[in-house]
Design brief:
Layout lengths: L3 H8 L2 E6 L5 H17 L4 E4 L5 H6 L8 H5 L2 E5 L17 E6 L9 E4 L6 H11 L6 H14 L10 H12 L4 H9 L3 H12 L2 E3 L2 E6 L1 H6 L4 H5 L13 E7 L6 E7 L5 H6 L4
Parallel strand pairs: 1-2, 1-3, 3-4, 4-5, 7-8
Antiparallel strand pairs: 6-7, 8-9
Length: 280
């Protein structure tokens, strides 16, 4: 556990939290859950969360903050769940007086003081273990967000990086008042619109050996009533098939030219491929 983290926090009156572009629940859960704990623990400090608003932050009922460069220049920037500098949502993190990073991805570059644990199933797992270590009392909403990020990234404790400490993290968060039924609804329930779009993704699926992929154009997801950020998260629709070892969803971006690739596998290491194409 990083003894320097609390020291850094206590040295700064302004703290700005960042996460990666196109955030998933681990990114938002760690960012927002951490910010609520900071606001509760240090009511005299100024705490901000930066990044683009998106459908998931809207669903959670949060709006990202807006700050001036002058605020950033006197702040501690904490970057969460982000594997490389180019993927930080709001590149003004470089203006911060001091920065640090908390992440569970395999390290591909070092650009500030870091706490990296690539054996953790989620950044939210790392935060929960840290709060338990320092015997912190979390606001119920903070614990809820962190738990939701935990089970989203490890898909209900079913991926290879789930370990004994993962359950320790869940136990601690549960002791802080987590509603597990609500966490399940936030992460895994679908609207009728989602259900219909997921059927479309399956119809586009192509299989080559043990690899499955689907390519979705901008027109298709917009006609279905989804935004780009909502559409790209549907990679999980292609998962859970015994004969498939790697699955990928290519979603055309809002510029109508480029595609975002979401690459997944149960047991085969695919990190090198993602990193080669500037992914995480």
């Amino acid at each position: 556990m990083p003894n320097w983290l609390i020291d850094l926090i206590e040295q700064h009156s302004t703290i700005v939290l960042f996460r990666h572009v196109f955030p998933d629940m681990d990114a938002l859960g760690s960012q927002l859950g951490f910010s609520l704990w900071l606001k509760n623990r240090y009511p005299q400090k100024q705490i901000y969360c930066l990044g683009q608003n998106n459908s998931l932050s809207d669903k959670l009922g949060f709006q990202m903050d807006e700050v001036t460069e002058d605020v950033l220049k006197d702040s501690l920037g904490i970057i969460l769940d982000t594997s490389n500098a180019s993927r930080v949502d709001d590149q003004r993190f470089t203006l911060c007086k001091q920065t640090c990073r908390i992440d569970h991805h395999v390290q591909v570059e070092s650009f500030c003081e870091e706490w990296i644990d690539d054996h953790a199933s989620a950044t939210c797992e790392m935060l929960a273990l840290y709060f338990d270590h320092i015997q912190a009392s979390l606001p119920k909403k903070s614990a809820q967000l962190i738990y939701e990020g935990l089970i989203a990234d490890n898909i209900r404790f079913t991926i290879s990086t789930v370990r004994e400490q993962t359950y320790d993290a869940a136990k601690y968060l549960y002791s802080q008042g987590v509603d597990v039924i609500e966490a399940e609804r936030v992460n895994f329930n679908s609207s009728l619109l989602d259900y219909q779009y997921e059927t479309l993704v399956r119809k586009h699926a192509t299989v080559s050996n043990k690899f499955m992929y689907a390519i979705i154009d901008q027109k298709e997801y917009e006609e279905a009533g989804l935004t780009f950020s909502q559409a790209k998260e549907k990679v999980y629709v292609l998962s859970g098939i015994d004969e498939i070892e790697i699955w990928t969803l290519f979603t055309q971006m809002e510029d109508g030219i480029h595609y975002s690739a979401s690459l997944r596998s149960r047991t085969i290491s695919i990190r090198d491929v993602a990193v080669e194409y500037h992914g995480g």
